[in-house]
Design brief:
The chain is built from 13 helices and 12 strands. By secondary structure, the protein is of the alpha/beta class.
Length: 448
């Protein structure tokens, strides 16, 4: 079967040589390589065009996210077998042959690979599984040293989109990747679950081996956190029936919140609950044919979780504030610790000692010297104490300013990513409005 290998690229210039060289070295007799550049800004597309004439290059004017870029490549591909491959991978000899061979079995709909970390010894992925009811994604074998313990093919719940293959006839039945998982995370699990629902199996194939750098397209922890949590909630709304969402997920999520919020998930959780509220009615109606009453219950549960997250985040803020106050107080020296000659050498203090001078002819220097000596005895200790306090305040203000700058940078990245999602959310909200109007007409046909 002809194979089309699709490589979505976003600012992956430094990884493309290793990826494409290994891919083009595969000995499979009938294949094509398609690179979909997702509006990169580092010259990735030009690099491919100039150095890899055998590669078919598609340039996107906008960032479509992982699923969107893959779908462009899938629709352009001519193969009976379609393979998705991340830009930061390096496939081993025989990789493509092993994938196509595993798809010869008609019941097999998707196959995944043995993926190693760049050291070539540590397992990153040997198939995946979902932790219910929270919807957390896990990889079999992750972090283990590869000693052959994962060399047996087996069916799994899902395989990672970093490297997975499926036949075109399977795609015709289940449809393309869901681009609502923008910019990434959980679109691969969603696709595999849909394939399994269609009656196919998802298999882990250890004969197809590669190494993977991981998270090179998304590098900011705040963006990664938001994308993961958003994908998790969308996946749950699509693959957990509404009654289970209410009775199983919501109580488990309440317990999950405190440690998550004390990690890096604070802002992410609050925002994804809000986004999920906007998308819930559309997803529940489309996936589960949920009525208005059930949709409202799910939306209210998400609102309650968001409120709980606010309260938990406020506790965290109070704890951080108390710690900051304690840290600030510790910077200020006590009067007993203040002594002449102990001025801080860090930075330039806002307060400086007064320099005594005199304009009296001849004896002026003596007068200035006498005043300085008297000042040393009577007041210098107090001035030193004030200077040390001012220096402590300055240091604390500089630390706060650095923290604020870091927060501002993270917020800028986060809100830029949200801006690209507003159009989709508006469409989904419009669907809800149409559904409400339709239900109103059903209940009162004479109403306009």
């Amino acid at each position: 079967m002809k194979a089309s290998v699709i490589v979505p690229v976003w600012n992956g210039r430094e990884y493309l040589s290793a990826c494409l060289d290994a891919l083009l070295a595969q000995d499979y007799p009938d294949s094509e390589v398609i690179v979909v550049d997702d509006a990169s800004t580092d010259g990735s597309a030009d690099f491919v065009a100039e150095n890899y004439p055998r590669v078919r290059l598609i340039r996107s004017e906008h960032n479509l996210g992982f699923a969107g870029a893959c779908n462009v490549g899938i629709e352009a591909g001519q193969g009976e077998v379609l393979v998705l491959l991340n830009q930061d991978t390096r496939v081993c000899p025989g990789w493509l042959q092993a994938l196509v061979g595993a798809l010869q079995e008609f019941r097999t709909g998707v196959v995944g690979c043995k993926i190693l970390y760049p050291d070539g010894k540590t397992i990153q992925h040997a198939g995946g599984w979902i932790e219910w009811p929270l919807g957390l994604a896990h990889h079999h074998g992750q972090g283990e040293q590869d000693a052959g313990q994962w060399d047996v093919p087996q069916p799994v719940e899902y395989v990672t989109g970093a490297a997975m293959a499926f036949r075109r006839d399977v795609l015709v039945r289940v449809g393309l990747l869901d681009e609502g998982f923008w910019p990434g995370y959980f679109e691969d699990a969603d696709f595999c679950f849909r394939v399994r629902e269609a009656g196919y199996e998802v298999w882990y194939t250890p004969g197809a081996v590669l190494t993977h750098e991981e998270t090179t397209s998304l590098t900011d922890p705040t963006v990664i956190s938001h994308a993961y949590q958003r994908g998790r909630l969308r996946f749950l709304l699509k693959h957990m029936p509404p009654h289970r969402f209410l009775t199983e997920f919501v109580p488990a999520e309440e317990e999950y919140q405190p440690p998550a919020i004390r990690g890096q998930e604070s802002t992410s959780l609050r925002m994804v609950y809000l986004e999920s509220m906007l998308a819930a009615a559309y997803l529940l109606g489309l996936r589960w044919q949920a009525n208005e009453r059930m949709s409202n219950r799910v939306v209210m549960a998400l609102q309650w979780l968001r409120q709980q997250a606010w309260e938990e985040d406020w506790k965290k803020t109070e704890e951080l504030a108390a710690g900051a106050v304690a840290s600030f107080v510790s910077f200020i020296p006590s009067a007993e610790d203040s002594a002449p000659g102990t001025l801080s050498q860090v930075g330039t203090p806002s307060l400086i000692e007064f320099e005594f001078r005199s304009t009296v002819p001849i004896v002026g220097p003596l007068i200035a010297r006498f005043r300085s000596l008297w000042h040393n005895v009577a007041a210098r200790w107090a001035v030193h104490y004030l200077i040390q306090q001012q220096e402590a305040i300055n240091r604390q203000q500089e630390a706060i300013s650095r923290q604020q700058e870091a927060i501002n940078r993270q917020q800028d990245i986060y809100f830029r990513s949200l801006e690209q999602r507003f159009t989709t959310l508006a469409a989904e909200s419009g669907f809800l409005a149409q559904e409400i109007a339709r239900l109103a007409l059903q209940s009162d046909p004479g109403r306009k």
